[in-house]
Structure formats: structure tokens, C-alpha cells
Records
---
Amino acid sequence: MTASRVLVLNSGSSSVKYQLLDMADRSRLAVGLVERIGEETSRLVHEPLAGPGAAGGTRERLGRIADHEAALEAVAAELAADGTGLDSPELAAVGHRVVHGGTRFTQPTVIDDEVLAEIRSLIPLAPLHNPANVTGIEVARGLRADVPQVAVFDTAFHSTMPEYVARYAIDAATADKYAIRRYGFHGTSHAYVSRATAALLGRPVEDVNVIVLHLGNGASASAVRGGVCVETSMGLTPLEGLVMGTRSGDLDPAVVFHLARVGGLSVDEIDSLLNKKSGLLGMCGDNDMREVLRRAGEGDEAASTAFAAYVHRLKKYIGAYSAVLGRVDAVTFTAGVGENAHQVREAAVDGLAELGLVLDREANAVRSPEPRLVSADRARVAVAVVPTDEELEIATQAYALVTR
């Protein structure tokens, strides 16, 4: 029997999201989440989707889970109860989401001691994410040392950006010394969605130019030419670019100096302000787009202004990336807001007929879990909604690497 299963792990600072997939038919065997690790209120939710365990439905465990090792042991126990445990000979790989790969990691990579040390060395570039990613890798290696552990990097898809796009216009020696450049994030989503858009259009990915708008609480745009990323909105960190749930996006750098000199804020206070207290939340007090839309619909001025700012930034990036690509075949919306908020799609495309973008408003208003076109028949550029699947993308890349 050929091993075909991949366990995908996304380890956060106090959580572990996981999925077990069978790459023989790209099916999901189980999905789950461990949250509030280290607290008395820890919670594990496990949903078996195939096999004998599926008959029992979703299972929930409450109570303290001390650390990531205990969390992964609990995950292993749940999978074992379904007959799909980590000791299964059918497990081909464990795929790990790693947020930052720097310039060193531009492809999925089998993890050994040297690779793990290099991922650890990148912690200064992603201090909120890479430490938890490292912890998840260490624990998983301990639980199943004989199975390949594969790192799939959020930054990798964007590593194809030309050097003149990736470089900031600052002193080159300083930039090189401190690894300051544009890396981009959400890469697994942009990779998956750009390919899925080409499939939706019935064309080879090499022939399709697409603008991908990944709109969740974090949000990013990318310009993808023939399956290759040539520009993206996030930069050194996920702060640059679009207006987001709690992040400011593009900002005059002198705002930081002003806040320090005039406001007396510390570097940490400014960091917290721009990353956690800005964006929609900072402008109107809500970072949930559903609430922003509800309040704006009731005439709330702050919510209306926040929504207008959010949409205006989207339009700017659609226009800019249309110029970068020269020819655009599709603009694709994905992630929580992009997939579900038809008002955002309508507002973002409104007025862009000269760029070839025209919505079918009835089609756009229909909710569906399926990839679909929501553009009018007369539109020169397709407008698509494609649900993202980062876990499947990670599993696909990991499995391809270990079965070469």
C-alpha cells in the first residue's frame, strides 16, 4: 500500500489547527482545532469526515492542555480513535505552515536539523508566528521521527517578484544588513486561488493573468502572470497594503516618527497601534465586516467611512495591478470577506468598466461554496469568487515533494 495521507499542521502561539488529507483522491479524513493551549479553558474540537469515526460526528474535549506537545498528543489520540492515527503506515508526510521563509526558502522543504535552525533564525522577521511554527515542527518530529516533515512557507509564492519590486528604495547596504525587503504573505492561498481561477476559466494557468484579492481579517492582493507572482501588497511584514481588520495597511512612514516625537509613544506602542488597533477596528470600532456593513446600512458615519476607505484601497490595487500585468483575465475574490461579502465585491468593482470589469449583480448576490464567475457576460475581464484552500495547497506541495 502506497502511503498517501498528509497531516497538515498550522501551529499558532496558543492554538493548533490541523487537517488529515488523503492525497490519493484529495479527500479530507479529519479536521480539528486545539485552542487556548496552556489555559484552564483549553478546548479541542475534532471532526472525523471519513471512515468509522465519521459516524459519531464532531467530538469536543474541554480542560487544560498544558503545551503544544500535549496538544499534538491529544490530536494523535483523536485520530487514533478514528483509525487514522499518526502511527499509520499510510501517513506519507506532515506538512507545516511556516509564515516566513526569508530569501532562503522559496520552495517546500523537507525539515532536518539544519533547516529547523534556519527557520528559527528567521524569528526576528516574524516574531509572532515563526516561534509557534518551530514549536509545532519540533513536537511533530518527536511524535513521528520516521515520517518526512515538510515546511511550506507563506512567503515562497511571492519569491518570484522581480528584484526591483521586492526592493524598498532605501540604502542598499542597510537593507541587506537587516534583510529589509518585500516578502509578501498568504502565499499558499494566492498560489491555490490563481491556479483554481485558471481552471475555472478552462485555460492553462500559463495563459492566465489574474489579480487575487485575499480578503479576511488580514488582507492582501497579488498580481499573478501565468501562474507566477510578480507583485503583492504585503511587504517586510503583513502590515503593508490593503486596509485590514486591525491593520492599517499602507501608511506614510513619517506617521511613526510623528507618533514617537509628538505623541511620545514607544516603538512597542506604535507597533500595537498599527497592527492591532487600526484598520476597520481603528476607524469605526469593529473589525468584523458583517458588523461594519450592518452599521453602514443603518447610516453610521464611522462605519460608512471605514467601509469606503476599505473599498477605495481595493480599487487602487486593482488599478495598479492592472497596469503591472498589462492584460488581466480575471480578478478573483477569496477568503472570509472576499468569498462571503457580496457588497464588498460589488463596491470594489463598481466604476471599473473601463478596465473591463462589470458584475452580474444577481449572480454576485448568490452565496455558494463553489468556485464561480460573478461577472456579466459582456465583461472583458472575469470577476471570480474562489474559496481558498490553504490546507489542501500545503498537503499538495508536501506530498509532491516526498513522492518525487
---
Amino acid sequence: MTPRTIVITGASDGIGAAAARALAKAGEQVVIVGRSAEKTRALAKELDADYFLADFAELDQVRTLAAQLKSDYPRIDVLANNAGGIMGKRTLTVDGNESTFQINHLGPFLLTTLLMDTLTASNAKVINTASAANGFGKLDLFDLTSEHGYSTNRAYGTGKLSNILFTSELHRRYGDQGITTAAFHPGVVRTNFAAESTSPFRHAYKTLLNRFMLSPEQGADTMLWLINGTPGTDWISGAYYAKRALAKANPQAYDAELARGLWEKSAELVGVGA
């Protein structure tokens, strides 16, 4: 069979790197996207894979990435939106958005929408890395910069809730044009996640709690299951998964009007058509 072209963001470390290794070993054409030049180049060299550098804290870098991908890959079979993170205190990006919201949601949203022509023509799968932390989230369409009631946990949870809402709305808008999509919770994985943030979560990754966490390979399992599985047979497009099974999300995740509103607001913030 012809190798699939699979683009994975946030692939320089953690579950993204683990998934890239597994897919490359299976003979797929993996395209690695990362923020760390050193880590991204090292993994690309290890796998003999193409790579791109992009920091989702700057939307212009996402725009450049999308243009490069469209130019180099006329077909993209899978886009795995895996880049994300937890920040800490409230900060704004150069684009004027709350950092956690931009890196976890607006960046992937912009990349996906800019690639939409290629993705629909390829009947692509779009796989979004969410988290059970979506349960901490509370999305307010009139306060997307979290000026009121900010907390690290809520901001991260809202970003992950947004991933799930984006998944359901992406299915609603583009399901009949060939797109299939799912969001998933990888589990609590033993990685460098949160290490560079000021979040209290970063301490858990350096303590005895570390030994109870999943390995990156275990955390990548559901992502790989979605990438390799058949939508409509193995999984349902537009849904949220954990441990290869449908999972319960924040009640807001099932609000179709909220999903529609988030898409429209996000399109405004990143400057693309709704």
C-alpha cells in the first residue's frame, strides 16, 4: 500500500514523538512539527522524516507552516493536532490572545482551516489531542482572553474543552466533504509536559507521582488507534475518546450552539472566513 502522509504537531517529544516513531516504523510518511529546533531535528534525523518548526504562540508561524505544508504535500491523509500545553499565570501572546487558549485551540484551529482544501481533497482524518482536564473548563464566548476568573487549571481545561467543541463542529461542517475527526484523552503521561511553565502541575512530573504516569508509548495508544482505525466502523467521527472508547466530556462539550459560536469567534480572532 502507498504510505500515508501523516502530519503530527507537537511531535518533538512525548506522545507525539512516540506516535511518529510507531508510524514511521510501519512505513508511513511522517511529517514532524515541533517548537524545539534541537528536539525536532533530532527526531527527524532518527526517523529520516521531514520536519518543520513552529511555535503556536505566534499565529504568523502557524500561517507559514500551513503554507509550507500546502506547498510540499498535495495530499495529507492525517493531521494530528497534538501541540499544546499548560502555561501558568495569565499572559497574552503577540496576537493579543490568552496564551493557553491560543496554543491549545487557536493555533490548531488556524492550521486546520488553512489546510482545509488539501484535507478535504484527501478525505483526511483530523485527530485532536484533548484531555480529561476539559472537565475543569468553562467556555465563555464573551471572555475568550480570560480577563475574569482566570486560573491555570481553568484556562487549560477550557483549551481542551475547545478541542472537543472544535472536533464536533469540524465534523458538522465538513463531514460530508470527506473529513473525519475525533478528539481523545491520552491519559496522564510521563513527559516534559508543563516543565517550562509556571503551572503547579510541573511539580508532579518531577516527583514520585511520575512513576504512576503512563509512558509516552502508552499515551500514544489511542491516537494511533484513531489514526489506523476506520471511521464509522472503529470510531465515530466528531466524538471524544479515551482508552479506545467513547468518553464522557464536560457538559458544555455537547452544546451545538456553543460549538458553532466558538468556531465563528475563533475565525474572527485568527482572521479566516467563518
